[in-house]
Design a protein that fits this description.
Layout (H helix, E strand, L loop, with lengths): L1 E6 L3 H10 L5 E7 L3 E3 L4 H5 L9 E3 H6 L5 E5 L2 E5 L4 E4 L2 E4 L2 E4 L3 E3 L8 H4 E2 L4 H19 L10 E6 L3 H16 L1 H4 L6 E6 L11 H13 L3 E3 L4 E5 L2 E4 L5 E2 L2 E4 L3 E3 L1 H5 L24 E3 L18 H19 L14 E5 L5 E5 L3 E5 H31 L1
Parallel strand pairs: 1-2, 1-9, 2-5, 9-20, 11-18, 12-13, 12-18, 13-14
Antiparallel strand pairs: 3-4, 6-7, 7-8, 10-19, 15-16, 16-17, 21-22, 22-23
Helix pairs in contact: 1-10
Length: about 400
């Protein structure tokens, strides 16, 4: 038996385990500082109050128990990795590995050159921050309902910084939910505004023009104010300053403008890019180590043309599948002739309510209810697969 350790219970980490488990001589240990898997792709609905916490989080221990005893879970924070001794340290304990997969993801990058940004805004890369953001949103709605908004009577302004995929989805879902709140808030709902801000001259920079156009029109129909080409210079409590133009008052701010490497990634002395992601080789090895791999958001992924791929759940899962195959071939003394070169099979943008826009295989373009149903089908299929393992693991624990 050979020992595989996977650090990180995100999309890539779980997919890697599912593939590795098929090798009967692999013993797998998943290590994560959190006891849950966070479905970050569904965070937009959770933050806006459309989904519950049970829609975006699943228990990792029960998921691992859904396999047999060859898959174990340790809830701990990895402190150090020794590549030479092939061990890692957590809570002053050591554990050895034959193969190591680093899948620690990334976190919100609160740019240090924007004074006050981190202190006065919420990120969405973790369940904890999304939970805090949801509470803040619901608190402001409650204050408006009970007329407790006394600091600036008649005004409740939400700002979303960053018009990438997460920012657009959150702004759209919040705006949609505000329309639903009209039955409760009455005319007061018209006093609540949402502004989406980005330094780029377009929303969803780098994505297909079709998605940009559909998203722009949907945001407009939902009443979202979109401010492009706006460089944030400083954020104070209740006030945002720009390099050019008048400042904006706000009640709370969400920032989705970028990502940076997780803490563990920063501690490992290997080549990295400007935001701390690992620069891996064509087989996703880290630091030239033949038995150390990295997948998902913690690495810089490129396609065959050399273009950087977006940090999505799809890319995390594809890189996970590749690494699992690479390990299997190596252990069976077979040569894997393929380097990792992934392409996006499709991309959907959730745009509030039962509306989404998407592109499949660079050819099929959908929007509206059809786009929503296809996106829902993908996310529901993914979650169903996880739930089967969680339920199986729960039943095993009850029998014990």
């Amino acid at each position: 038996m050979y020992q595989v350790i996977v650090i990180g219970g995100g999309y890539g980490g779980l997919r890697a385990i599912e593939h590795l488990y098929k090798s009967k001589d692999a013993e797998i240990t998943l290590i994560d500082k959190n006891p849950y898997h966070y479905m970050q792709t569904e965070s937009y609905g959770y933050i806006a109050g459309r989904f519950d916490i049970t829609d975006v989080a699943l228990d990792l221990e029960h998921w691992c128990r859904g396999f047999d005893e060859r898959v174990k879970f340790i809830c701990a924070k990895v402190r150090h990795i020794d590549f030479e001794k092939q061990t890692l340290v957590y809570e002053q304990k050591h554990i050895a590995y034959d193969e190591l997969i680093i899948a620690v993801g990334a976190r919100t990058h609160f740019f240090s050159f924007i004074q006050g940004l981190k202190a006065h805004s919420f990120g969405v890369k973790s369940l904890e921050r999304s939970f805090g953001l949801r509470q803040a949103f619901e608190k402001r709605i409650y204050q408006k309902l009970t007329k407790e908004m006394i600091e600036r009577e008649g005004d409740l302004h939400i700002v979303v910084g960053g018009a990438g995929l997460s920012g657009v989805e959150i702004a759209a879902e919040m705006a949609y939910m505000l329309k639903k709140y009209e039955k409760v808030l009455g005319s007061h709902v018209k006093e609540i505004s949402i502004t989406l801000i980005d330094a780029s001259e377009t929303i969803l920079p780098g994505l297909d023009p079709y998605l940009i156009e559909k998203s722009q029109k949907r945001l407009e129909s939902l009443g979202v104010n979109v401010r492009r080409g706006a460089f944030i210079e400083k954020v104070e409590e209740r006030k945002i300053f720009f390099k050019e133009g008048e400042p904006v008052f706000y009640d709370f701010m969400i920032f989705t403008g970028g990502i940076e490497a997780a803490v563990l990634t920063k501690q490992i002395d290997v080549p990295k890019n400007s935001i701390g992601q690992f620069i891996v080789d064509e087989r996703l090895h880290v630091g030239g180590k033949e038995n150390v791999y990295a997948i998902g958001d913690c690495i810089e992924l490129r396609d065959r043309s050399g273009s950087i791929l977006p940090p999505t759940a799809q890319m995390a899962e594809k890189s996970a599948a590749y690494v699992a195959k690479e390990i299997k071939c190596k252990r069976e003394r077979k040569e894997n002739h393929q380097s990792f070169h992934a392409t996006m099979d499709g991309l959907f943008v959730a745009l509030g309510g039962n509306y989404a826009a998407g592109i499949l295989y660079d050819r099929i373009k959908v929007s509206g209810i059809l786009g929503f149903l296809l996106k829902k089908l993908v996310s529901r299929g993914y979650r169903l697969g996880l739930e089967i393992k969680v339920n199986a693991g729960y039943k095993k624990r009850i029998k014990r």
